[in-house]
């Protein structure tokens, strides 16, 4: 009988993802020698080497690569078994792993967390903030329960639920206050500051300006909306930001804001989860809380704008 434990499989999965004993051990909250011992016992139980070890990193052997995907499938099934048990209960409790893209998380997360904690006090909410492709990968692999992203994601194995529409605003230097917003054609001649490659918001901004990619002369990218706004404040160029980010990102920057003429650029924010998830009913309830939270955030923005 094969003597393999779920703990060993989780340790191997962490090691396969990180490619480094130290980082994998940290992710699993155990010591590196303990992780190494468990992996060695797993190799002995399976009768083959899983790793090629070197001083700096580890690489999967061919056997290890083939096993890696099977292990992920096993672990996902085990996690879904736990989700199935939770879904059968009247209350929503236990771990909830939510992913969010960086152009949403800082502005919506505090309100979502507050509302979820109030409605479901037994939830253990864990948040993962990263770009859409990685969120989708982790969701498909079972490492996340749901993700809040810009739609569509067009992944056949996922359910998509649209939540709300969000407009984009033009951010310009403060000296441009009161001047009309430029047309799409005029935007193509301006120094447009963008998020770095991989952010879906970058692609949405380029699409609005009818550009396939940023012009070679404009290579000033940033990894956050905050940096983009500060670059505009310094007179380097102009940028677009989602409406929800405006109060946070412009409060300490000498910039002006302008809305475009209709049709205004916008994006659809939604929630996605695996079609096979036993928590589908509960996640649909969570999506309603997210809509409520977004409505409160936007209401606060309206009040601030009226006061200003």
Automatic annotation (TrEMBL):
<dbReference type="InterPro" id="IPR000847">
    <property type="entry name" value="LysR_HTH_N"/>
</dbReference>
<dbReference type="GO" id="GO:0003700">
    <property type="term" value="F:DNA-binding transcription factor activity"/>
</dbReference>
<keyword id="KW-0010">Activator</keyword>
<keyword id="KW-0238">DNA-binding</keyword>
<keyword id="KW-0804">Transcription</keyword>
<comment type="similarity">
    <text>Belongs to the LysR transcriptional regulatory family.</text>
</comment>
<keyword id="KW-0805">Transcription regulation</keyword>
<dbReference type="InterPro" id="IPR005119">
    <property type="entry name" value="LysR_subst-bd"/>
</dbReference>
<dbReference type="GO" id="GO:0032993">
    <property type="term" value="C:protein-DNA complex"/>
</dbReference>
<dbReference type="Pfam" id="PF00126">
    <property type="entry name" value="HTH_1"/>
</dbReference>
<comment type="function">
    <text>NodD regulates the expression of the nodABCFE genes which encode other nodulation proteins. NodD is also a negative regulator of its own expression. Binds flavonoids as inducers.</text>
</comment>
<dbReference type="GO" id="GO:0003677">
    <property type="term" value="F:DNA binding"/>
</dbReference>
<dbReference type="Pfam" id="PF03466">
    <property type="entry name" value="LysR_substrate"/>
</dbReference>
<dbReference type="InterPro" id="IPR036388">
    <property type="entry name" value="WH-like_DNA-bd_sf"/>
</dbReference>
<dbReference type="InterPro" id="IPR036390">
    <property type="entry name" value="WH_DNA-bd_sf"/>
</dbReference>
<feature type="domain" description="HTH lysR-type">
    <location>
        <begin position="4"/>
        <end position="61"/>
    </location>
</feature>
<protein>
    <submittedName>
        <fullName>Hydrogen peroxide-inducible genes activator</fullName>
    </submittedName>
</protein>
